Amino acid sequence: MRVTNQMMINSSIANIQANKNQINTMDTQLSTQKKINKPSDDPIIAIRALRLRSSLDQVTQYVDKNIPDASSWLSVTQDALAQGYDIVYQLYSYCNQGASDSYSSDERNTIIQTLDKLKNSYYVQGDVDYAGRYVFTGFATDRPLTYPSDVKAAAADYTITQSFDRESISEKKVYTNAYTNEDIINLNVKKDTDGKTVTPNVATVHRIQLGYSEVDADGTFKITDASGNVATVTKNDDGTANVTGIVNAKGETIDSLDDGSGNPVSITFTADSNYIPGDDEIAINSQLGEVLLGENVYNNTYTNNSFSVQYEKSNFKKGDVDPTMYFTCVDNVTGINYVKKSEDIEYNVNFTQKLKVNTQADESFDIYLGRNVDDIMAAVQNTVDIENQISKVESMKKEEKYAGTDDQKKLDDMLEGLNKQKDLAKDQMTKAFEKGIGQMQGYQEKISNAKADVGNRIQRLDLTKTRLTEQKTNFTSLKSQNEDIDLEEVVVNYTAAQLVYNAALSAASKVVQQTLLDFIG
Q: What is the pLDDT of residue 516?
C-alpha cells in the first residue's frame, strides 16, 4: 500500500491528539481528584457511586442528625425523671418522719407549706422541653404539662371522663359529732337524743377520688354505675341533686340507679367533709373532688369492678396539670374532643429501625400524687385547726363573759370533746403519713420504671450509633476507592503521558520536514 505524506501527517496528528486527550484526562483527574467527571467516562463507576453516595448520605443523616437529636431528647427526659424521683424521695422522707408524729405543733404549718411546694415542683419537672418542644406531652409538644399562668389556666374549661375499678376505691375516715368553729362560738355542746353529752369519733366511708378537687359544682355530672346505668346529675339552687335521663346499658329509660340487689340508689350533693352516705346513696363532694359510695353501692361496684364519672372543671389555677394529658375529655371552649391514647414520637435511627424518644406524663408523673399529698396536708391541717380550737376554748374559759357556771360547764364539755377529737386527728394524721409511705414508694417505682425504660432506649441508641459509625467509615472508604484517584499512580501516568506526547511531537516534526520535492533536482 502506498503511504503518502498526507497519510503520515494525518496519522501523526491523530496520535498527537490521542496523547493530548490522555494528558487532559490525567490533568482533570489531578485537578478533581476523581476518576470520572461524567457517567459516560465509566458507567460502572458511576452506578456504584450513586449507590454508595445514597447509602452514605442516609448513614450520615442518622449519625450526625437523627441520633444526636434523639439522644438529647432522651437525656433531657432522663434528667427530669431523676429530679422527679428526688422530689418523691423527699416526700417519702417527710412521710416516714410524720408516721412517728415527730413534728411539733409549730412545725406542722411549715410541713404543710413544704409538702405543697414539693407537690408543685414534682409536676414542674413535666414541663421541661428540648429545643422548644415539651417532652412529656405526647404529640402536643407545643403545650406544657401544667398551666404556666393564671391567665392560661382561667381560659381552660373541660368535661372530663374518668373510669374507675375496685382498686380506685379507698377508705376515708370521717368524724362524727365533730366540733366546728361555729359550735365553739355558740357554745353548742354535742348531745345525743337523750340529752347526754357525746364526744367525737371516727367512721369509715368508701371514696372514689376524681383527678381534680374543686370541680364545677354547677356543672353536669354523669354517673355510670357498676350495672352500666347512666344518670345525668345537676345541682339545684337549694343544693339538692336533680337526677334526670337515667338509662340502662341498652339505652332504655329507667327510674333509678341500681345497687345490684334491685334497690334504688339516690344521688346527693354535699359540702360536708365528714358526710356519711346511706347504704344506697352516692354523694358528690365537688369541693374535695370526691364521690362517696354507700355500703350497698360499694359492694356492687367492687363486685362488678366498674364505675365511671363525667364531670366539668373550669377553675384551673397556675400549676394545675392539663387534663388532656391524662384523661379523655372535651374542650368546652373549642369543642375539640381529646381521646386519651398512646402518643409515641419515634425517630428513624437506622435503616428500617425506629426508636421511641418520648415518655408521656401519665407514664411518669402520676396525677394522683398531688391528690395523695393533699390528703396528707388536710390531715395535718385538721390537727392544726383542732389545736387552735382547743387554744380558743381555753382562752374563752378565762374571759369574764364566760365566767358563769353553766358556760364553764359547756366549755369543759367542749374541751373534753376537742381533746378526744385532737387525739383522733393526730392518729389520722399519723395514718395518713403511714399510708403516704406506701404511696410514695409506688410513685418512686413508677418513675424508676420510666427511668429504666429511658436508660434502655439510650443504651440501644448508643449501640446503634456505634454500628452506624462503623458503617459510615466503611461506606466512606468504599466511596473513596470507587471515585477517588490513586494520586501517585496518576502522577506517574501523567508524567509518562507527557513524555509520550513530547515524543509524538518530535516524531511528527521530523516526518513532515521533507517532501518528494526535496529529492527532485
A: 60
